[in-house]
Write a structure and sequence with these properties.
heterodimer, A: alpha/beta, Rossmann fold, 5-stranded parallel beta sheet, B: 298 residues, mainly alpha
């Protein structure tokens, strides 16, 4: 027994040591400009790991926007220097990255992508007086506790409510939910969806769960859904589990109703096993921050620039990161300084300011969270095209916060 | 009835994979009394080999699953390499304890090495479908062909291993080394060569396990082997580590327990229940479910 204990201890210490190395190694070397002409803005996101699509989209979006701002003369006449760090979607890594950046004198940080990682640094941002804007941490309590924390995305209680509103619009009366109870994002969203359904008179007839976010088998959960006779299942997981496991297994278990997800479904189409029966992805919908096929000039211009730069369609995480920079720019200009984070914070806390971003036009609420709507998007499969190429996304509708009453 | 059948099928699906992995654990343990914690990561190696070689197979007009031949070779090489570079020198100097820690270290090393290789990287890769989809429908519930293949492959591997260890010269040498190393040397058996063969066979098995796993759960990532390996290790211990039929039984039991816990108790508690079962089994039968069959020890 002692041997085993020792082995476990050693294994743990090795893991930690490796983790620590990763945090230091993931950061870009900083430029020379400590206190010089440039404004240092940090970017923390999961560039590697299971949520890497999120982090890479953030980085690409932020780089593009920084280049645009710099080309247009910078903020208050000063160029922006973007410092990037990888947190692998992990809370400890995120804290390491945050501390490294603070040590380098960074006073403005954009990040992180997931609520789990971001929650680890919100308190620290307040203590250090660092302005933190998360592009996509949607858990409700991210911005409520700390004065220096803001975001460019909606919060989960709104996202869950919007999902429930859409369900009601479809005339669906009986739904089920599947979540990972150990994950903030998954359980937070499902709980707000459940509460919103009950308020709208929609019956939540079955609730199932998994032990982890990267569960591999959802068959039993969906069998319960079939038996409960639900018309729609609200399942909150990330794209890598959705494409490979969740949707195909749900159909194999005999569930042919609607599978509804949230912004974590963005990017699913790149994570589908080749040779799957692609028609299983019909009737899969999710709420998202924006629709990349939107024809409004702001979105169209952004998507075009992004495609010219990277050759792909921007995930919402790219657009949200760009919006974070836009918010920061506007706040710095309103404060008239980029050297005083407290003044920039005060500018961001002004709820009367309207931001016009790629992901919508919005004001921030008291806590620092945008009040805005969501796009409901569905996956489509075109039999006549066939293969992976036949898969695509399509906007179903947009629901704004005002539509919820 | 539908729920029961579906739960049973899911349990068999998971269990068949655990069984296949557990066979590798138990085989190595049976011969050199080493719990090879890196075994789960050999599955990761097998998984990535499949990702890279399946396109070659389909391009050559061969069935995708034939890529497993290359995967077996790669995994066996990695297994032999790990034995030569890490386990053997450590075993010579130290004790079973040091070997165990080396195994944990190799596991972490392989995971991090894989991340460092540009073609692999730290992000998950989704495999294409390796077998034609389809299955039997019983009372409205589908039992996938892949699950049946996996069980059949596990059973065949179990039988082959049994025959190999009982009937062949090398198998007999393995059992001798397992029983008494110095006596084996006196009988003219090359211990090093025997151990090396054990590793080659055990690691090769992980490629077969990787094939069946990826066929059912087509996501390959660098840490995929850790929890998978742990569960299979639990299966091997529950069945009676060192016993070839025990690994198969243990794997199926763990898979079924997991599945039935999900359906009938709570899906959040599956891992907790699996490990509780292990403790219960070990309290009642310290040597595992089939533990008393000392005569069958390889």
């Amino acid at each position: 027994m002692k041997k085993k204990l020792l082995a476990i201890l050693l294994a743990l210490s090795m893991t930690l040591a490796l983790a620590a190395c990763g945090g230091g190694g993931g950061e870009e070397p900083s430029g020379e400009a400590a206190g010089g002409d440039t404004i240092k803005i940090g970017l923390i996101g999961p560039v590697t790991g299971n949520n890497a699509s999120f982090g890479n989209a953030m980085v690409e979006g932020a780089r593009m926007t920084v280049a645009e701002i710099n080309a247009a003369g910078g903020i208050l006449g000063r160029q922006i220097e973007l410092l990037e760090a990888d947190d692998r979607g992990d809370a400890t890594e995120c804290m390491n990255a945050f501390n490294n950046m603070v040590a380098e004198g960074v006073q403005y940080i954009i990040g992180s992508a997931t609520s789990g990682a971001t929650a680890a640094i919100t308190g620290m941002a307040n203590e250090e007086g660092v302005v933190l804007i998360s592009p996509s941490a949607t858990a409700d309590d991210i911005t409520t506790e700390d004065d220096y924390v803001f975001r460019s995305c909606f919060k989960d209680s709104l996202q869950g409510d919007i999902a429930a509103a859409w369900v009601q619009q479809q005339g669906i009366t009986k739904v089920g939910t599947i979540m990972c109870s150990a994950d903030n994002y998954s359980s937070g969203l499902v709980n707000s969806f459940t509460a919103a359904c009950e308020a709208r008179g929609i019956e939540v007839a079955a609730d199932e769960s998994t032990a982890t976010m990267d569960a591999q088998d959802f068959t039993n959960q969906f069998t319960s859904m079939v038996n409960a006779g639900v018309e729609l299942v609200y399942a909150i997981y990330y794209y890598d589990a959705v494409g490979a496991f969740l949707v195909p297994q749900a159909r194999a278990a005999g569930f042919d109703g609607i599978i509804m997800g949230a912004d974590g479904f963005d990017g699913t189409l790149d994570y589908i096993s080749e040779g799957t029966d692609y028609s299983v992805f019909n009737d899969v919908v999710y709420t998202n921050h924006y629709d990349a096929t939107d024809s409004s000039p702001v979105v169209a211009e952004y998507v075009e620039a992004y495609q010219a730069e990277y050759g792909t369609q921007p995930l919402c995480f790219a657009a949200l990161a760009s919006d974070c920079l836009m918010m920061l720019q506007k706040a710095m200009e309103a404060a008239g300084t980029a050297d005083d984070p407290a003044a920039v914070r005060d500018a961001l806390a002004d709820t009367s300011v309207t931001y016009e971003g790629v992901t919508g036009t919005f004001n921030l609420d008291e806590s620092g969270t945008p009040v805005k709507g969501a796009a409901v998007i569905e996956f489509t499969y075109d039999e006549s095209v066939g293969g992976v190429e036949g898969l695509g996304t399509q906007l179903v509708t947009t629901i704004s916060a005002d539509d919820l009453a | 009835m539908g729920v029961f059948l579906q739960t049973l099928f899911v349990g068999l699906r998971l269990g068949s994979v655990y069984a296949l992995i557990a066979l590798g654990y138990t085989m190595v343990y049976g011969i050199i009394r080493l719990i090879n914690f890196a075994h789960g990561d050999f599955i990761m190696v097998g998984g990535y080999t499949l990702i890279f070689t399946v396109p070659l197979m389909t391009a050559a007009g061969l069935p995708a699953w034939l890529a497993v031949v290359i995967a077996i070779a790669v995994c066996a090489l990695v297994g032999v390499g790990v034995e030569l570079v890490a386990y053997r020198p450590v075993r010579r100097k130290g004790t079973g304890m040091t070997a165990l820690i080396t195994a944990v270290a190799m596991s972490l090393f392989l995971e991090n090495l894989a991340q460092a290789i540009p073609a692999i990287g730290p992000n998950p890769i989704i495999a294409s479908q390796l077998f034609a989809p389809g299955g039997f429908r019983v009372a409205g519930v589908t039992l996938d062909f892949v699950t049946i293949y996996t069980i059949a492959v596990s059973a065949a591997v179990m039988l082959l291993l049994y025959v190999f260890t009982q009937k062949t010269r090398m198998g007999r040498a393995m059992r001798c080394v397992s029983e008494d190393k110095s006596a084996a040397v006196l009988m003219g058996i090359s211990v090093n060569r025997t151990v090396l063969t054990t590793f080659a066979v055990g690691s090769g098995l992980s490629a077969v396990a990787a094939l069946m796993y990826v066929a059912q759960y087509p996501k390959v990532y660098t840490t995929m082997g850790s929890l998978l390996g742990l569960k299979a290790f639990v299966a091997a211990v529950a069945g009676g580590i060192g016993l070839i039929p025990g690994a198969m039984l243990g794997g199926l039991v763990i898979g079924l327990v997991e599945s039935f816990t999900t359906s009938y108790i709570s899906s959040s508690l599956t891992d907790a229940v699996v490990f509780l079962i292990l403790i219960a089994v070990l309290l009642i039968k310290p040597a595992g479910i089939l533990g008393k069959n000392v005569g069958e020890k390889v």
